[in-house]
């Protein structure tokens, strides 16, 4: 759809044919766009709100012009096979949810579970109530020209995107049923081009390791007595008996990794060690968030980890802001990614206001808003002067898990809680690498400079 995306051979089709039956209860009013199930296992993470406020998407002064949604996948299995994957319940990639109790396919490492699929369907249903039923922003029937979908090349993110789209529009996602003439492709970039999550580079790995020695990180860890807490968590794993829980991660290297493994058990209704109280679990999530947030001490981390994806998002946003013909009908872009995708974006824009690790099925929305009383000139070719005029009447609002958040460098320039588009693009430019390959290299001069920074 967009000229700046290279064509790839790998795509996933979404079909707009027959549906599948999923028993989900959805109630909606101005402040309760919620999805809940009578069985507690089917609820979102207790750390994840499902309340949506319709007024955040437009009022008497502003209207919604375009939205980019970046999501984390739903609940999944562990990526390692240290524990039997028969403990989890999964479906094949050809089905969203199978009503057959057996035979059910075995789970693969890192695969979306049935509960994870339900999570994403729920997210899609929330957006259907919002964008179709309440705002009439999207057509009630699936229109492939209105929606662009991109996923990383993992089964759980592709399955998450398919599940969310089913919640939004219904339709068959299996080849067993007759294919619909109305279909779209999911863009899945080749691994060497993927930029929706941090990719290892010499400098990025060096900086992340050096963060542990940063004076501010050391000071915070000492103040919070992190060593004592970590010993306590490890002792819980040591004391946990196999019959109590299969979740035991001794000598873990990071809280982000620990929380990811923990989620696979607790959020799928599997037993966890009795010693992991709610207070300890809460702090595990908080320590993981601190790890993500600490990357702000080296701004280069954001540039190298997520800057190229920011560039993709901004190119699309600029095309839409200037009414480029290539995105004439586009209203929603969905990006199916990971916790590292969301965390990196939150840190890069200095808007990580939440205290915890991005939970499964989290959503980060970039809303392009426009002055409602501004009448756009109808022209095909937009001049530089007209582009400036258009941008002057547009703003970016950011919503994380249905709660508005604020871009750090733009707080003193906000208009009604939104960042003027011109400021947003300027801030984004500071995150985008000018030459990724060169900036990823690490010279001996760089090493000495960074080490001297933390020693001063």
From TrEMBL:
Coiled coil: none annotated. The keyword Hydrolase applies. The keyword Hydrolase applies. PROSITE patterns: HIS_ACID_PHOSPHAT_1, HIS_ACID_PHOSPHAT_2. One of its GO terms (molecular function) is phosphatase activity. Signal peptide: none annotated. It holds the Pfam family His_Phos_2. Keywords: Hydrolase. Belongs to the histidine acid phosphatase family. This is Acid phosphatase.
């Amino acid at each position: 759809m967009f000229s700046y995306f290279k064509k790839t051979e790998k795509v996933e089709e979404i079909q707009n044919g027959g549906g599948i039956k999923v028993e989900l209860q959805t109630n909606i009013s101005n402040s309760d766009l919620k999805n809940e199930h009578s069985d507690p296992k089917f609820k979102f993470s207790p750390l994840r709100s499902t309340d949506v406020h319709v007024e955040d998407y437009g009022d008497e002064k502003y209207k919604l012009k375009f939205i980019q949604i970046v999501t984390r996948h739903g609940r999944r299995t562990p990526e390692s096979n240290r524990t039997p994957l028969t403990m989890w319940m999964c479906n094949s990639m050809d089905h969203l949810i199978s009503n057959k109790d057996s035979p059910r396919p075995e789970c693969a490492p890192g695969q979306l579970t049935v509960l994870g699929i339900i999570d994403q369907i729920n997210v899609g249903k929330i957006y259907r109530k919002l964008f179709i039923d309440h705002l009439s922003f999207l057509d009630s029937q699936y229109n492939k020209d209105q929606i662009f979908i991109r996923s990383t090349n993992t089964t759980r993110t592709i399955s998450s995107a398919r599940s969310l789209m089913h919640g939004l529009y219904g339709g068959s996602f299996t080849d067993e049923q007759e294919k619909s003439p109305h279909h779209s492709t999911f863009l899945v970039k080749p691994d060497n081009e993927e930029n929706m999550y941090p990719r290892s580079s010499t400098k990025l790995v060096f900086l992340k390791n050096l963060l542990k020695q940063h004076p501010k990180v050391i000071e915070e860890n000492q103040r919070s007595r992190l060593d004592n807490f970590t010993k306590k968590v490890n002792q819980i794993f040591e004391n946990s008996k196999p019959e109590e829980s299969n979740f035991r991660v001794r000598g873990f290297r990071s809280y982000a990794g620990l929380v990811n493994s923990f989620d696979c058990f607790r959020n799928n209704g599997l037993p966890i060690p009795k010693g992991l109280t709610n207070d300890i679990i809460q702090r595990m999530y908080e320590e993981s968030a601190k790890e993500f947030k600490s990357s702000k001490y080296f701004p280069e981390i954001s540039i190298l980890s997520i800057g190229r994806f920011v560039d993709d998002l901004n190119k699309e946003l600029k095309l839409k802001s200037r009414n480029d013909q290539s995105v004439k009908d586009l209203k929603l872009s969905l990006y199916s990614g990971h916790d590292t995708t969301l965390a990196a974006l939150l840190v890069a824009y200095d808007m990580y206001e939440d205290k915890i690790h991005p939970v499964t099925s989290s959503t980060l929305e970039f809303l392009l808003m426009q002055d409602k009383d501004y009448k756009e000139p109808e022209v095909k070719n937009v001049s530089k002067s007209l582009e400036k005029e258009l941008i002057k009447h547009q703003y970016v609002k950011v919503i994380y898990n249905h709660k508005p958040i604020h871009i750090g460098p733009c707080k003193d320039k906000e208009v009604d809680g939104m960042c003027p588009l011109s400021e947003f693009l300027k801030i984004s430019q500071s995150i985008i690498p000018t030459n990724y390959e060169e900036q990823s290299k690490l010279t001996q001069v760089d090493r000495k400079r960074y080490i001297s920074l933390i020693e001063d």
